[in-house]
Amino acid sequence: MxxxxxxxxxxxxxxxxxxxxxxxxxxxxxxxxxxxxxxxxxxSSSPTSTPVELPPVMVTAGRGxxxxxxxxxxxxxxxxxxxxxxxxxxxxxxxxxxGIWTYTVPTGQLHPTGQPVSIRxxxxxxxxxxxxxxxxxxxxxxxxxxxxxxRIPKDSVERVEVIRGGGATSLWGNMAMGGVINIVTRQPSKxxxxxxxxxxxxNTTNANVGATAAFNDNLKAGVSYNxxxxxxxxxxxxxxxxxxxxxxxxxxxxxxxxxxxxSGSNLKLFTKAYFHQAYEDGWVWSLSHNNWSSxxxxxxxxxxxxxxSSVAFSAWAGGGVYGTINTANxxxxxxxIGATNQYVSQKETAPNADQxxxxxxxxxxxxxxxxxxxxxxxxxxxxDYNNLxxxxxxxxxxxxxxxxxxxxxxxxxxxxxxxxxxxxxxxGLRGDFYQALNASVQTVNSGANLPIANSSASSFDPRxxxxxxxxxxxxxxxxxxxxxxxxxxxxxxxxxxxxTTYTTVNPNLQPMTNVGEEIGVDFKWRGFNLxxxxxxxxxxxxxxxxxxxxANATCASPYVMAAxxxxxxxxxxxxxxxxxxxxxxxxxxxxxxxxxxxxxxAGFTNxxxxxxxxxxxxxxxxxxxxxxxxxxxxxATAEWRPVPEVALTASLRSFPAYWNDTGHTxxxxxxxxxxxxASYSPIKxxxxxxxxxxxxxxxxxxxxxxxxxxxxxxxxxxxxxxxxMPLTVIAGLRAKx
Length: 737
Prior knowledge:
This protein is about 5% helix and about 55% strand.
């Protein structure tokens, strides 16, 4: 609490005194103000071909700020860098950025509810606290908070912006504890068309076609269609497969439309509309099926008042439907793989609605730069129709869950540039307001309806950051901040079943709060750059998915009977506020461009995450590494362009074995994965490209064996491990017309 009070006092006093300081000092020479559409570039080499020009939209992860000037660790990948990377999915591209963690299983092979994205350990499947945006708008699912990465084709990406750590939450609020990832998509620039087709291992096909039209200098439009499908690989290790354990096939379709208006002077407006549909067939079991659809209309723009002030806004409305069919093992176990009496254990359909928006005023006063004052809001509504089956012949137990969450925030932030001293101080204040409304859980079979009382919470979240320019090449920075994250509706209202495991609801979950500090150094010299950051976060009311009953019918009986389920469910799980947690570690990120044609980057992240106190010490222990947080990761990339028409790339990601759960009952294997890619432009506007992912075909368990006790020796034979992505080869052709 002392850190909170200190940050609050400093921030409040700073905001009061800063205007006076601005008037009292002679301002330094004014640099050109960064427009909301400005983007720092991390590469100076030229592309192998010239794609249809699509400049970035106006709302960025920094809400109009130059990310390189922030007092926290940031990364920007340009379109050229994204296109050159050998990974074909955006989730796997992000996985090569230091500090970001996603599963090494590609998105089309993962269950929609099991696709985490994490920065600095914030963002596991049980507690997703990394905010992911597309064009400045959150795309974390309204119900599960996960991200459907198949919604974002690689070819649609203009750049990727990453802000690490909770220092971003003064501008963004809920879910940004770990940081912010903003994927900026392309916008129309001139009349043209392009196509991109590829084919590879496991009958993996990707086709993208798009066209843009410049009606005049002010009005431009674009439309694109993307189709991706794959027969998939078998997630189950070969020694445990039978006729019912099959490869996971996937298919995704995306239709996007954008309209961009630029008055040529002060006003810029854009609108985007998209529709997305994804399917998975045979997720582990042949009877399993997943589908995920979404749609959204986005409006945004900015108005430049003068050379020192502007207003930017965005608003969106959309929704979607999640559907799943899950399968129970029957009598199948790892010791009885011949059993083929599997049956459907769950059929679920969950439609949702999602609306929101933001507006902020950006200006400067003398030495006080990059001032932003604004508000944002998001409303999410779900209805979950869930049928659970105890056996192949039993009638379903049907649940209907309804819920609504609302989030509002008001924020202010500004950076003071001292004259005579190479020091910048950034002060931010944010108020967050959260409401859980109109929730109920109905058991249709018994007619029982459990209305859930409305609840609300508020949070005052200040931040203070410093940036000291010791020399032109050496910068020292630091920040202290407070932030909060509301529980997800999935965590509060959803019950589900798989195999012999039942997960029950918990509408009494409370928001999490965090106090964090970080200090870092940035060094640049000629073609070399190095960034080092130490971070420490202390989080209260940490939410985790805990196993209340483990393969224990007596323990599980009260829960499954209350749900109207049969005795075959012997394991019960529930989301709980389990206690307090600490996330701390170091990030080292470096780059070197020894000559124009070669660019090298590398990163090392060490993260220690553990409970400092536990409300369930026998289940979630203190002092042990939290689930889905590897203690370290190493990433490295190399891009070589020996001639302008050729690009050769390689990337590496290495990580140790790590626990998939805080109860330490599932150990995932470590791996070192190498990907390589090449592209060649034989003629102008035509690219031939190919990539190999997991070049050495390293075999490892991305989700390992499950044991029955904490780090125990006895394997739970009903839980099936999952293989990581094997060697995968893709080749394609990209052309512009």
